[in-house]
């Protein structure tokens, strides 16, 4: 048990950098020389390497600092003041963070409320979207407020335990959101490319449970890390730099960005290629197709419908554009941060990143949680209608929208559309 705790303590500090919790690497002299003599202590010196990757954006510059000849494992005292950002910059960044918290919390809450209160919306894909929205809510509630206070104060003032807890929660909820987005992409691939409906509500719930388990595995190490340095612009940890640390950060960044990005990129290339081919095939036929013509085009499930159906190609294009937009926003928010994290981990410390630039990179990951509900409202008509229904009557200034239709029973029939609208979210 002690060996496992020691191993986790060695590996976990890199997760703090993923959250903007700036690592402070200290190689104490008493580790290198267990029984130093006065002669050795006057010769052997300890080097302290700091990575100030603060999401507060106050002080992320780093320098190599030789410690005194006396043996010491304590970090250098924190600066009394860190006047890096002007008051105007702090006010602007604080206002931006407040806006992100409000939009992410209330926007994603509406998504969860719609799926919870409307049984017709509880399809497999909508359950996944609700879980994605829940993860975004938790990021805005458990992580963003700490970043806001740290920005204003200029120091991490919440202590060791909250430091570890926020690092754990950040990785947990961000990882969960990314896994759900990847799951939605796989589901869309099977429906569009393979023409197979592999996902139902029961399987979706199992998939959600499995994704939470995987997220817990990745996010757990910060909880048992036993090194901490107070008084700096952001929650900071101390640890010796080893090959295992570098391997772990590669694993963490791969789980959060590299693997999902590569996998989803290939899936969407296949999906877009299939949509393009089917669009060209339908354009070469009359707008109104008979059953035999629709069957030749590979449009499943039309044999039990009326003799003539309208194939709405714009509907399927718009539906998958919504998911594609979620993916594009994810890449936009996470790619710069991932590159910056790799640079800070494996680059030279004397070329440390500017504090304001690093603040922007960290907050971009928060921005992802605020962008998602905006995309839902913009692209998904059913959510707009449900939002209108949830509004108080005194606030309903617009004319009443048409009532929601029945939920789509077979997601594989996304290529079919008649007067009855589809009730799936995407």
UniProtKB/TrEMBL annotation:
Record-level GO cellular component terms: plasma membrane
Molecular-function annotations in GO: G protein-coupled receptor activity
Keyword flag Zinc-finger: no
Keywords of the record: Cell membrane, G-protein coupled receptor, Glycoprotein, Membrane, Receptor, Signal, Transducer, Transmembrane, Transmembrane helix
Sequence intervals crossing the membrane: 88-116, 128-152, 167-186, 206-224, 247-271, 323-344, 356-378
Iron is among the record's keywords: no
Membrane topology, from the record: Multi-pass membrane protein
Region described as Disordered: spans on this chain: 57-80
Primary localization class, coarse: membrane
Ranges for domain G-protein coupled receptors family 1 profile: 107-376
Pfam families: 7tm_1
Compartment(s) of residence: Cell membrane
Family matches, as InterPro entries: GPC_Orphan_Receptors, GPCR_Rhodpsn, GPCR_Rhodpsn_7TM
Protein name (database record): Putative high-affinity lysophosphatidic acid receptor-like
Organism listed in the record: Stichopus japonicus (Sea cucumber)
């Amino acid at each position: 048990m002690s060996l496992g705790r020691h191993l986790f303590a060695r590996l976990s500090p890199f997760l703090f950098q993923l959250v903007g919790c700036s690592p402070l690497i200290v190689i104490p002299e008493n580790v290198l020389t267990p029984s130093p003599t006065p002669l050795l202590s006057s010769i052997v010196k300890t080097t302290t390497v700091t990575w100030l990757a603060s999401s507060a954006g106050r002080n992320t510059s780093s320098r190599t600092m030789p410690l005194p000849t006396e043996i010491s494992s304590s970090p250098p005292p924190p600066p009394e003041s860190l006047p890096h950002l002007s008051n105007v910059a702090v006010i602007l960044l604080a206002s931006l963070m407040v806006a992100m918290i409000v939009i992410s919390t209330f926007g994603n809450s509406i998504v969860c409320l719609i799926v919870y209160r409307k049984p017709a919306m509880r399809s497999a894909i909508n359950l996944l979207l609700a879980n994605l929205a829940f993860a975004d809510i938790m990021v805005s509630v458990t992580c963003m407020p700490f970043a806001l206070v740290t920005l204003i104060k200029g120091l991490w003032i919440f202590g060791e335990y909250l430091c570890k807890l926020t690092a754990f929660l950040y990785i947990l909820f961000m990882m969960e959101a990314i896994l759900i987005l990847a799951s939605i992409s796989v589901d869309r691939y099977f429906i569009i490319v393979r023409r197979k409906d592999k996902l139902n509500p029961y399987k979706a719930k199992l998939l959600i449970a499995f994704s939470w388990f995987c997220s817990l595995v990745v996010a757990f190490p910060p909880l048992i890390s036993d090194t901490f340095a107070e008084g700096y612009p952001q929650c900071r940890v101390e640890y010796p730099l080893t090959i295992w640390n570098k391997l772990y950060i590669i694993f963490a960044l791969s789980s959060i960005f590299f693997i999902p990005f590569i996998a989803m990129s290939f899936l969407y290339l296949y999906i877009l290629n299939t949509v393009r081919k089917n669009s060209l095939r339908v354009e070469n036929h009359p707008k109104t197709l008979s059953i035999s013509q629709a069957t030749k085009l590979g449009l499943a499930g039309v044999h039990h419908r009326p003799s003539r159906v309208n194939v709405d190609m714009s509907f399927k294009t718009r539906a998958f554009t919504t998911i594609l937009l979620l993916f594009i926003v994810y890449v936009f928010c996470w790619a710069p941060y991932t590159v910056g994290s790799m640079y800070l981990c494996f680059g030279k410390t004397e070329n440390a990143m500017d504090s304001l630039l690093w603040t922007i990179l960290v907050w971009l990951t928060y921005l992802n949680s605020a962008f998602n509900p905006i995309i839902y409202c913009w692209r998904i008509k059913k959510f707009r209608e449900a939002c209108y229904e949830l509004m108080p009557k005194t606030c309903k200034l617009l004319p009443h929208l048409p009532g929601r239709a029945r939920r789509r029973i077979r997601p594989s029939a996304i290529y079919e559309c008649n007067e009855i609208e589809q009730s799936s979210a995407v």
